[in-house]
C-alpha cells in the first residue's frame, strides 16, 4: 500500500515480468505490455483464489520443486542470504517521495505501515493494534502498539505519524501520494500557509492519534495507515514550503520495517540486513538482496544467482520452470485489469449499443488468452478476481458473438453502406485506436482489424513507441479507443479511479456517482460488497470503458525457501520476515 | 597554433550554446512531459506539479533557467531518480567507460594486426578467411550473440557469470575484487569487440593496401631494407595516419554507454539510464547527458585535428 511511485516502465521490457511489491505505481502502461512493476504479487501458498473462476494457464496449483539436487552450487552455498530480482531500483527509498515502483518495493521492506491488508485486501492491524471510526465515518483514531521503535532504536510515537501526514500537505510536496485528496480537515489551510498545523490531526497521547476528514471515504483507513516517517530524522530540517532537504536522505533511510538498508550499489544491488528492532521480532534470514535485473531474469534463475523471480504465466515459461527441477512455482493473478478507454465525446461511442457491439464483436479470447499462451483471462468488471468485491453474479460475460454485434449496430442505426463500411447520417463508422508498441498490441491490432472489418467498422490503428506521447495524444482527444491497464488496485474504489481524476471525466451518470459515494460512505465490508456488486453490474452493462483482460503470472523461487507467500497487495513484504532457508 | 586554438575554442563555445538551445527545445517539444505519464493524477494535481517543477513556464524561459544553473555547475536533480544529475553520472558512467575502454583498446589492437597481415597477404587464403569471418561478425545481431554466449558459457557450462559486474552479495576487495570484475567483463567485452572489429579491420586493410602500392615502399625495398622494417616502419605509420580522425569519434563513444550490451549483460551503465529517462521525459538528466556527449564530441574533433597536425607536419592548422 505504498501510495506513491510512478512506475518506470521501459516498454522495451518484453521479457519476464519482474518482481514487484506493493508500489502503488501509477503508470498505466498499455494493457498489452508486460508491466514489470505493476505492483503485485501472488497468491498465498494456501491459495485462496478461486481456481474455477481463474484457471491459471497451465498451472492452477502451486508446484513443488522435484529435484533440489539440481540447485546450482552458488545457491546451495547461501545460508543466511536470500536474493530476489528487481528490475531497477533508483535509490529514492523514502516512502511518499519516490517516483518509481521499484523504489517502492525497496521501501516496503524498510518501513512498516500502521495498517496492512490481508490477501483479500481487507485491512488488518500492523503498527496500529486497533482503530476506531466515528459514527459519522469522518474521524479515525489509531491506537499504536507500545514500545515501537525505528531501526536505530528511537521510539515511534503518534508525533511521527502526525508529521508524516502533515508534510504530504506541504505546498512543495511533489510525490504522488493520494493522501491530500482525502481532504483532511484543515489540510488545505495548511497548504495555503494560512495555518501552521493541520486542524484535523490530533495527537491524543504518544500511542493515540486521530484524524478528521471533510467527507467520508472508505479508502481513508488504508491511505492514512501507510508508512511512518521519523520526525526526529526526516523532520529535523523541515521548514514549511521546502522539502528539498529530504532528497539528501533518500539513500540513508531510517525505517521500522523487517529490514534495514545495508548498502545500495546503483544499477546492481540493494543489500538489506535484518532489523533487530522490528516490532514482530528480527526476521529469520539475516541478509536479503534485491538484485537489479534490467534485462532478462532467466539467466539468473537458471544459474542460481537469484532465488525468486516472476514470469508471465505462458505455457512455455511454466514448462521451462518445471524442467529446472529446483524451483517451486506459485500461480498468481495481479490486482489489476486491462481495459480500452473509450472516447465518450465521440458521437458514435456515446451510444451504449455501439460499445456493447464492440465487446461482442471483439474476439477477446483469442487476443488475451490464446495468443498470450494462457497468460491471461478475460475481464468484464473493473476489479481483479482476487479482490473481496469480485463477483460474476449478474455479469454479462460478452462471449464473442459477431452476429449479436451486427444486430446491435443495426439497432443503433449504423447500416452497411457502400464499400461494406457502416454509415449513419452519411458518416462512416471509424474506430481510431491507439496502443503502445509491444507484441501484445500487434496481436490486438491483427485480430481487431479482422473482427471490426467483419462488422463493417473502419479500424485505424496507431502505435506509439513512447508512452508519454500516447498519453499526450489521448489528452488531445484525438482517438476512439486506447489500451491501458490499471496500476495496482488495493481498494475496490481504486478500480473506478479513472472516472474521477484520470482521463474519463465524460461519463456523466448520476446513478454511478450515487453508488460510488454510497460504497465509500461506510467501512463495513459486507455492506460495501453489495454496493460494488451493483456498480459492477452497472458498468458491465453500460461499458463506459471496455474491459479486456487480467494478467497471469507465476512466481518461481528456490525450493529451499520455506514459509514464502506473496500478497497481491503488499507483495513480499508481509511474509518475508518469516522466510527461511532449509 | 595558439591563435588557431583560441579561435577553435571560441567556435566550440558557440557551437555548444547553439546545440544546447536546440537540444533543449527538441526535448521540450516532444509530446508529453514528466507528469503526463502518471495518468492517475487529477488534472488539478498535474497542474500543481507542473508549477512545482516549472514545467508550465514558456520554453525559452525554462531554457534560460537551466542554462543559468548549468553555468553555475548545477545540473539539477533527476526527476525520476530524485538524485543530483552529476551524482548519477558518477554512479553509472565509469561502468560504461570501463567496458568501452577495454573493448575499444582490444578492437584497435586486433584490427591493426589482422588488417596489416590481410593487406600484406592480399588474396591469400588467410585474407579470404579473415574477410569472411569479419563480415560474419559484423552481421550478427548483438542481442543474439550476447544471449547465445550467455546460454553456452554461463548457463550450460557455468564458466563465466551470466551478467552484472560483481557476484551478487560479494564483499570482495583488492585482488579478489579485481578478478571478479574481470570475469564479469569478459563476455560483454568479447561481444563489443566482435561487433566493432569488422569495420575497423577493413579500414586498416584498405589503407595498408594503398600504402603498399606507393613508390616509397618500392624504394625502401630496393634499398634492401628488411621486409619487417618496410612493413612496420614505413608502411604502417602512413597507413595509421588517417585513423587519427577516428580517435576523435571514439571519445564520446567511450562515455556514452551501450544500451543493448548493458541490457543483455545487466551491466550498470549509463546507456540504460539515458534511454529510460527519455521515455520518462526526465529533462534534467536528458539535458545533462546530451550536453556531456556534445562537449566530448567537440573536444574529440579538436583532439583529432591537433593530433593530425602533430603526426603529419604537412597539415597546416
From TrEMBL, chain B:
Q: Where does the record place the ABC transmembrane type-1 domain?
A: 93-304
Keywords assigned: Cell membrane, Membrane, Transmembrane, Transmembrane helix, Transport
Q: Which ranges does the record mark as transmembrane?
A: 9-29, 92-117, 129-154, 185-204, 239-265, 285-308
| Main location as per UniProt | membrane
List where this protein forms a coiled coil: none
SUPFAM superfamilies per record: MetI-like
Keyword Cell membrane set for record: yes
**UniProt subcellular location:** Cell membrane
Topology versus the membrane:
Multi-pass membrane protein
Can you quote a single GO CC term?
Answer: plasma membrane
Tell me the Gene3D superfamilies matching this sequence.
MetI-like
Give the similarity note: Belongs to the binding-protein-dependent transport system permease family.
* Protein name according to UniProt: Diguanylate cyclase
Q: Which organism is it from?
A: Paenibacillus odorifer
- The organism's taxonomic lineage, starting at the top: Bacteria, Bacillati, Bacillota, Bacilli, Bacillales
